[in-house]
Amino acid sequence: MCDILVESLRCKRGGFSLEIDKLHFKKGEKVAILGENGSGKSTLLMAMVGFLKYSGKVSYDGVSIREIPPSERAKIVSYLPQKVDVLFNYSVKDVVLMGRYPWMEKGFPRADDVARTEKVLQEYNLKTIADRGVLELSGGEQRRVFLAKTVNQDTRAILLDEPTDMMDVRYAKEALKKLLSLPATVVAVMHDVNLALSYFSRVIFLKNGRLVADVQSDFVDEKHLGFVYDTPVHRGQAFLFW
């Protein structure tokens, strides 16, 4: 588990500007980030892991991420981007094993790295395709592989950009259940509003690069969603957008 604090964050990407005065993610908390395309969700995550230049402060357990060497940072926070470029046809097992790299000795896996990888493959229903090349898989299968790799990194904080993208509903639900049972602090950009509200305890909403709401999931209503997504919303057993 990890305490994450974002303060006076200012970040620019092209003509887009993200401004977050303060965000606090408590140890072990599970938080979803919602908002329209281009609202700053991915930019926020990338700044939080130190992949973008920014002013302000992002700290993990009181230590600024700028002060943490990359080799140590990889033991504290793992990150799954929205898109992963796959260049080589590594086996599924090898890709998931790569998640252990920060913990390996001189780049070589130890017995416990292999054992943990086998466990993660089993938990994410990848054993039957473990020997297949990742380039041979469907988009949803690839997403499950890279999510498993991220989890296998075994960090105190996990940041995810649309972790269930392209997954079938069954696999998406199973993945979220396993992911959110971890002790780690989890912050995830979600595209599916109903999945986000069903599995995450807290939701933050971004609009035009600004934080516009920070709400416990049980208290999210039609007004929040209608304002953020600029469309009428009706709540039945799930939220419906009209």
Report what the structure shows:
With 242 residues, the protein is α/β, with parallel strands linked by helices. It has a domain at 4-83 and 156-241: Rossmann fold (3-Layer(aba) Sandwich). 31% of the residues lie in helices and 27% in strands. The chain contains 8 helices and 12 strands. The protein has helices at residues 41-48, 70-76, 92-97, 111-123, 139-152, 169-180, 193-199, 222-229, and strands at residues 4-13, 16-25, 30-34, 55-60, 63-64, 77-80, 157-161, 185-189, 202-207, 210-216, 233-235, 239-241. A 6-stranded mixed beta sheet has the order 6-7-8-3-9-10, sandwiched between helices. A 4-stranded antiparallel beta sheet has the order 2-1-4-5, with helices on one face. Strands 11-12 form a two-stranded antiparallel sheet. A hairpin with a 3-residue loop joins strand 11 (233-235) and strand 12. Helix 4 (111-123) packs across helix 5. The longest helix is centred in the middle third of the chain and has 14 residues, at 139-152. The N and C termini lie far apart (39 Å). The model has no long low-confidence stretch (mean pLDDT 92).
Under CATH, the homologous superfamily of the domain at 4-83 and 156-241 reads P-loop containing nucleotide triphosphate hydrolases
Strand ordering within the main sheet: 6-7-8-3-9-10
Q: Can you tell me the overall shape?
A: globular
State the name of the first-level CATH class of the domain at 4-83 and 156-241: Alpha Beta
The CATH topology label of the domain at 4-83 and 156-241 is Rossmann fold
Strand content: 25-35%
Function: Part of the ABC transporter complex HmuTUV involved in hemin import. Responsible for energy coupling to the transport system.
GO molecular function, one term: ATP hydrolysis activity
Keywords: ATP-binding, Hydrolase, Nucleotide-binding, Translocase, Transport
EC number: 3.6.3.34
